[in-house]
């Protein structure tokens, strides 16, 4: 179908091009005269009498008033002589261009009189053509005197004069009238209709600016053409010439911009020049009129806009190269024809060989506008068709979604009735997802710990350190989701001891300084001198988590200004330290100052942008503050900022050494059993423990480990590392119980869990066994094995509570 359309378009364009070429020949070629009669005479020499002076001139001839003499009425008289020889049966005088009101007389007899009183404006259009029949009795054989009197203000112009057979001259008159007047009006009507159609499409789709430029340019082209040929020019000289010439930039500018943007040619500077030219044109032309050079200014002003058309044709050529299609070639052809016709018309007007020539620029629109309108309308139709198909598909999807919505409504009803069950399902989902996500992270951490024991170069060490940092960041993200569950279960234990708060505050400020700098915020730390020498009494890990969340919240929500972290001594005896986090953010409305501590609640993040966090930070802050028994207050002013205040006790106790309570035991030949249903975790655990010198036995279940472990006392396992969540719904506690039944006792056991459900944490805490959350840091695992090794060497249980609480838990599970 597209191929057929293309062929039709090509054939139509060929016909139009041939028609325009024929029109050019018809308009510019000589007339075909009958051989049976003598051809009409063309009179080009005349004696002009004007202002008391007589002068022989060559027609066409123009008489202009002096500069500033706009009200003077010019009345030149031209006398010509025609030698007819044999007088034709019907004789006519033809003047193809009279820019004045004329009176024509032959041998003293008036044959045409168009002079009126009062004097009207200059004749235009068909009125510039004078065809005057001459009665035979007015003529004589031989020489005949012809007198043409012109009357007009400011300027008159007379073309060459023809005399001869009436049929031949009437044919010349009708042809000129059609080409100079009727044809342009028809072209203007066609262009107007096409432009209005495109403008209607633009009104339907305003985003398609190309349609607007083309439609407006076409209408202005048509209006300018009609203004050229209407009998009443609406304006008097010099305003008529100035604003008629300004009509060119009015329609050339939108059409050239259309061509440039159709070719996707980015020329904003040139487009600005076009608009500036429209604004500056009247000023320039009126200044030229005041300087007496208006005619030359009008001529070269038109030439400048023909140059602008050349840029549009170049843009169309670029479009043709881009498209490599028939449409592009035809557009380039029609654009080139329009440019060529414009240059031809300008040269013809400048040579003054015909003071009323046929301009072909109007006819170039008959090819350019139908072609472009067809392209635009065809594109619009295709788009509408595609949109219709999309609407049909959308309706189908809406219907399907409607059925799904009904099902969803029913599901919502069921879900509403089971709201509490759904809430528990959330925790179950987090626990399951946490376990599945933590397994590979746990194995990766173990492999990285094993790599640290290898001999590596500097580059490899840097890569290992970065991988370890990524694993640590992943662990931090997991902990952010799990802290709430652990606190709900009461499984988060507080280890309060003395520590230096000042060093912690400076370290945290340094941690957030880069993020604050990137947002052009001031991050300041102010610690009063009284704080120096005082130790805080709290759990430093949990307190650091509180302050870090408050700083993160302040920096994240502050756009202008800064953040202040301060600490000072409060209380009469100086028994409390007050930590404050100030920001100049948007503030918190009074209605939301309690809600900000709710889980997943966020201000100004209705779309749940992940970059704004999960909405758990302040919830964790309040829970941890309550757990540590540190009063927390919020003070906020909308539009000015927010302040969080945290009070904590001081102590005279010395700061605990990082290694004061850590005893180190050897791991060489320590027999360790590992139970985990994930083969990657078992493999990573074996690699790491064997690098530490342990003798490792691994199994996916307790039964597999018991089958692999030796039965003799010297071969029995000395420590167990057991995953909590095993296959077939079994737990690590079940595995430890089976191990106890098989051997009668249980070596020190460590439970490793990737679960996050509150009831799971409560169960682990009640079991009496030590437990760690995946991914387990290698140093924590090494510390536990070292303590277990010391306990075995000392003949005790290594501090692993399996004698009373642990036995009770195992017996309860049995």
Question: Which helices and strands appear, and what pairs or packs with what?
Answer:
Elements: H1 2-28, E1 41-43, E2 45-50, E3 53-58, E4 61-64, E5 73-74, E6 77-83, E7 91-95, E8 101-106, E9 109-113, E10 130-134, E11 143-153, E12 155-158, E13 161-165, H2 166-204, H3 209-229, H4 239-262, H5 268-290, H6 294-323, H7 326-351, H8 361-417, H9 419-451, H10 458-488, E14 497-499, H11 501-518, E15 522-527, E16 535-538, H12 540-557, E17 562-570, E18 576-583, H13 617-628, E19 632-637, E20 641-651, E21 671-675, H14 679-691, E22 695-699, H15 702-708, E23 719-723, H16 732-743, E24 749-753, H17 758-767, E25 770-773, H18 778-794, H19 805-813
Parallel strand pairs: 15-17, 21-22, 21-23, 23-24, 24-25
Antiparallel strand pairs: 1-13, 2-3, 2-6, 4-12, 5-11, 6-11, 7-10, 7-13, 8-9, 8-11, 14-16, 16-20, 17-18, 18-20, 19-20
Helix pairs in contact: 1-7, 1-8, 2-3, 2-8, 3-4, 4-5, 4-6, 5-6, 6-7, 7-8, 9-10, 9-14, 10-13, 11-12, 12-13
What does this structure look like?
With 814 residues, the chain is an alpha+beta fold. Strands 2, 3, 5, 6, 8, 9 and 11 form a seven-stranded antiparallel β-sheet that branches. Helix 7 (326-351) packs antiparallel against helix 8 (361-417). The chain is elongated. The two termini are 81 Å apart.
């Amino acid at each position: 179908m597209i191929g057929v359309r293309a062929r039709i378009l090509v054939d139509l364009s060929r016909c139009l091009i041939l028609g325009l070429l024929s029109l050019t020949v018809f308009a510019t070629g000589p007339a075909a005269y009958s051989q049976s009669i003598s051809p009409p005479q063309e009179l080009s020499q005349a004696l002009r009498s004007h202002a008391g002076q007589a002068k022989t001139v060559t027609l066409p001839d123009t008489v202009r008033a002096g500069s500033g003499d706009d009200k003077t009425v010019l009345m030149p008289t031209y006398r010509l002589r025609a030698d007819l020889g044999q007088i034709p049966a019907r004789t006519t005088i033809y003047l193809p261009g009279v820019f004045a009101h004329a009176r024509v007389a032959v041998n003293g007899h008036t044959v045409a009189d168009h002079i009126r009183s009062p004097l009207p404006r200059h004749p235009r259009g068909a009125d510039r053509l004078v065809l005057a029949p001459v009665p035979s009795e007015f003529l004589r054989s031989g020489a005949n005197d012809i007198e043409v009197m012109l009357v007009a203000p400011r300027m008159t112009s007379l073309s060459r004069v023809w005399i001869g057979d009436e049929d031949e001259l009437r044919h010349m008159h009708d042809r000129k009238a059609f080409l100079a007047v009727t044809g342009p009006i028809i072209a203007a009507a066609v262009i107007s209709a096409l432009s209005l159609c495109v403008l209607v499409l633009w009104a339907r789709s305003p985003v398609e600016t190309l349609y607007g430029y083309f439609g407006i340019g076409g209408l202005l082209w048509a209006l300018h053409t009609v203004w050229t040929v209407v009998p009443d020019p609406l304006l008097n000289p010099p305003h008529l010439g100035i604003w008629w010439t300004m009509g060119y930039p009015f329609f050339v500018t939108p059409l050239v911009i259309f061509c440039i943007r159709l070719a996707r040619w980015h020329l904003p500077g040139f487009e600005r020049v076009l608009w500036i030219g429209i604004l500056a044109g009247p000023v320039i032309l009126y200044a030229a009129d005041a300087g007496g050079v208006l005619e030359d200014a009008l001529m070269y002003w038109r030439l400048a806009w023909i140059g602008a058309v050349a840029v549009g044709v170049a843009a169309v050529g670029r479009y043709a190269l881009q498209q490599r299609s028939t449409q592009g070639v035809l557009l380039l052809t029609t654009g080139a024809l329009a440019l060529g016709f414009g240059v031809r018309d300008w040269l013809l007007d400048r040579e003054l060989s015909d003071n009323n020539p046929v301009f072909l620029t109007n006819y170039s629109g008959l090819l350019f506008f139908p072609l472009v309108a067809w392209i635009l309308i065809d594109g619009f139709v295709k788009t509408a068709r595609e949109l219709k198909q999309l609407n049909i598909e959308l309706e189908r999807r809406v219907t399907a979604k409607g059925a799904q919505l009904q099902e969803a409504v029913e599901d919502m009803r069921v879900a509403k009735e089971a709201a509490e069950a759904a809430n528990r399902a959330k925790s179950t989902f987090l626990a399951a997802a946490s376990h599945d996500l933590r397994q590979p992270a746990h194995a990766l951490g173990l492999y990285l710990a094993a790599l640290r024991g290898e001999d590596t170069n500097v580059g490899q060490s840097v890569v290992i350190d970065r991988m370890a940092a990524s694993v640590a960041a992943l662990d931090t993200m997991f902990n952010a989701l799990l802290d709430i569950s652990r606190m709900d279960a009461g499984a988060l234990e507080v280890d309060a001891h003395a520590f230096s708060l000042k060093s912690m505050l400076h370290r945290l400020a340094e941690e957030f300084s880069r993020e604050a700098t990137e947002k052009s915020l001031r991050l300041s730390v102010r610690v009063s001198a009284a704080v120096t020498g005082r130790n805080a009494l709290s759990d430093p890990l949990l307190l650091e988590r509180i302050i870090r969340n408050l700083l993160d919240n302040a920096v994240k929500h502050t756009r202008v200004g800064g953040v202040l972290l301060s600490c000072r001594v409060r209380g009469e005896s100086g028994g409390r330290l007050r930590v404050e986090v100030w920001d100049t953010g948007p503030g918190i409305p009074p209605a939301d100052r309690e809600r900000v501590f709710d889980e997943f609640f966020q201000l100004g993040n209705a779309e749940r942008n992940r970059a704004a966090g999960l909405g758990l930070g302040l919830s964790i802050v309040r829970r941890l503050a309550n757990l540590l028994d540190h009063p927390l207050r919020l003070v906020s002013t909308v539009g000015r900022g927010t302040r969080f205040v945290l009070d904590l006790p001081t102590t005279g106790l010395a700061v605990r050494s990082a290694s004061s309570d850590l005893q180190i035991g050897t791991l060489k030949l320590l027999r360790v059993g590992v139970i985990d249903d994930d083969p990657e975790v078992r493999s990573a655990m074996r690699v790491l423990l064997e690098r530490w010198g342990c003798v490792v036995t691994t199994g996916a279940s307790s039964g597999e480990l018991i089958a692999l472990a030796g039965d003799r006392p010297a071969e029995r396992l000395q420590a167990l590392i057991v995953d909590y969540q095993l296959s077939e719904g079994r737990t690590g506690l079940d595995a430890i119980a089976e191990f106890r039944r098989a051997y009668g006792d249980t070596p020190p056991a460590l439970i490793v869990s990737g679960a996050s459900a509150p009831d799971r944490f409560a169960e682990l805490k009640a079991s009496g066994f030590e437990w760690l959350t995946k991914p387990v840091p290698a140093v924590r695992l090494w510390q536990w094995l070292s303590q277990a090794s010391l306990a075995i060497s000392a003949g005790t249980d290594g501090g692993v509570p399996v004698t009373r609480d642990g036995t009770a838990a195992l017996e309860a599970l049995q």
